[in-house]
Fold:
Amino acid sequence: MIDQSVYGPWAVVAGGSEGVGAAFADQLADAGINLVLIARKPGPLHETAARARAKGVEVRTLELDLLDPAALASVRAVTDGLEVGLLIFNAGANSYGHEFVTADLDRVQGVLDLNITAQLALTHHFGALMKERRRGGIMLVGSLSGYLGQAQISVYSAAKAFSRVFAEGLWLELRPYDVHVLELVLGVTRTPAMERAGLRMDLPGLRVAEPDDVAREGLRHLADGPVLVLVAGGTAETAERRSGFPRADLVLGAHEASKRLLPAPS
Ligand SMILES: NC(=O)c1ccc[n+]([C@@H]2O[C@H](COP(=O)([O-])OP(=O)(O)OC[C@H]3O[C@@H](n4cnc5c(N)ncnc54)[C@H](OP(=O)(O)O)[C@@H]3O)[C@@H](O)[C@H]2O)c1
Structure:
């Protein structure tokens, strides 16, 4: 059970409407933690909020694009005055796949703005309050993609590597104040975003994690930072393999394997 006295009474889930974000919301509500849920699409956001309210917790929703330069001000408008014991930054699946040199730089910037700028802004704000209070948790949702470079998503992979290394430094800085920092590394996970992207999750031998299992494992290990590579979906073994040398063999091997995941040409 998630300890309310450490991570309550409120949690903010940035990207808290669908997939893993919705599973976090459901499980935090089961633990009696009130929620601020942030996402762009109102439908899934309000459905997730309604499920959590039915479990007896208070829920505030914020329909917001975290790419909005005023995002932090909007988040503060609904959270100032609340005691936020847990921040989960979950939003961040790749929004633009393209070879880099011919890519639209504005869209590339969007990947960085969500995965780095928005994540830093929320972590800076809530992390400072947690440090003052000397308790709390910050979970950044990362990816196996952050363990090696990948064609078409080179910037996304690099942003996820940034997040992982950033989490390690932040963990060092906040551990004297009993604020737990965890980078939760996911592999292929059955989320609506992946289904919309047409990712082929039925391939023989491919291990796909389920959002409920990912959320359960992550929440159980909030205090076991700085980095948790999930057992769910076989992610831990892949991360270990991808961390080795020589890099060329690993990068080329993963590149071949990832081609199988892409939607079949129509
Ligand atoms: N699914 C996988 O296979 C996989 C693998 C490795 C890592 N991950 C990581 O897991 C996390 C969740 O991924 P996901 O597949 O569930 O997809 P996602 O597109 O990141 O969606 C997750 C949540 O974030 C919200 N969101 C996305 N972009 C947003 C924005 N600009 N502003 C506000 N909210 C936003 C979504 O709702 P709205 O769309 O309504 O805004 C949804 O509630 C990401 O950090 C991703 O990198 C996923």
User: Anything to note?
Assistant: The first helix runs from residue 4 to 7. The chain has a mean pLDDT of 95. The CA atoms of residues 2 and 220 lie 7 Å apart.
